[in-house]
Amino acid sequence: MTRWWRPELGLAVVVLVLGVLVVAGTLDVSAAASQLGLGPRFFPMLVGGAMVVIGVFYVADVLRGGRADPEESEDVDVDAPTDWRSVGLVSGIFLAFAALLNVLGWIIGASLLFFGLSVALGAAHKGRAALIAVVVGVATYALFVWGLGVSLPGGPLEGLI
Questions:
Q1: For residues 4 and 49, which has the higher predicted lDDT (pLDDT)?
Q2: What is the pLDDT of residues 12-42, one digit of tens each?
Q3: What is the pLDDT of residue 159?
Q4: Distance (Å, rounded) from C-alpha 38 to C-alpha 53?
Q5: Exposure pattern of 22-56 as b/e (b: 16+ CB <10 Å)?
Q6: How far from 101 is each of 5, 19, 109, 153, 160, CA to CA, in Å?
Q7: 145 and 122 in contact (C-beta within 8 Å)?
Q8: CA-to-CA separations, 4 to 17, 22, 99, 132, in angstroms, rounded
Q9: Which alpha helices (H) appear in the chain, and where do they start and end?
Q10: Integer Cα distance of 88 and 119 in angstroms
């Protein structure tokens, strides 16, 4: 490897490429605008555009000699081993969500996703975590389906919503 290549540049290029891919993929989306005037392309274009801008500035910074600051947080033990149990739980919860989304529908699937992640990451009050998970699942469904006009799977609740 040459001297100019560093891990920071790899991350910068990944951010830039992902931003370009999001913008390019969003250009193929065709749907009517919602009642708010925002169609299903608005937020992906916003996020993709931001990723492109950040990626360009990040690449320029790294090529000009910028370096990432070492971790200096008081709450982080850099010598502590990775908690593979939590990594496995979070990964399993995401995979289960992806596999069961069409069967359970968005509201039930997302509620179980948010609840499972909060418990896996150490939520102290499981009842409160469940209530918040349901509220967030319903709110995101309402925002995407009724606000943005995006179709999300209804699952068993299809006739009720």
A1: 49
A2: 899 999 999 999 988 887 765 555 566 777 8
A3: 73
A4: 22
A5: bbeebeeeeeeebeeeebbbeeebeebeebbeebe
A6: 41, 26, 6, 7, 17
A7: no
A8: 19, 27, 42, 47
A9: 7-27, 42-63, 84-104, 106-120, 126-142
A10: 13
Q: Which residues contact 18 (CB under 8 A, 6 or more apart)?
A: 51, 55
Token reading at 38: 């925002």
The dihedral built from the CA positions of residue 33, 37, 40 and 41, taken in this order, carries a sign that is positive
Radius of gyration of the chain (CA): 20
Vertex 70 angle, CA 69 and 76, to 5°: 130
Residue 124 has what DSSP assignment? S
For the whole model, what pTM was predicted? 0.59
* Separation of alpha carbons 76 and 69, rounded Å: 14
Q: Which amino acid is at 101?
A: L
The answer to whether 55 and 13 have CB atoms below 8 angstroms apart is yes
Calculate the alpha carbon distances from 123 to 18, 83, 118 in Å.
32, 16, 5
Q: How many C-beta atoms lie closer than 10 Å to residue 134's C-beta?
A: 17
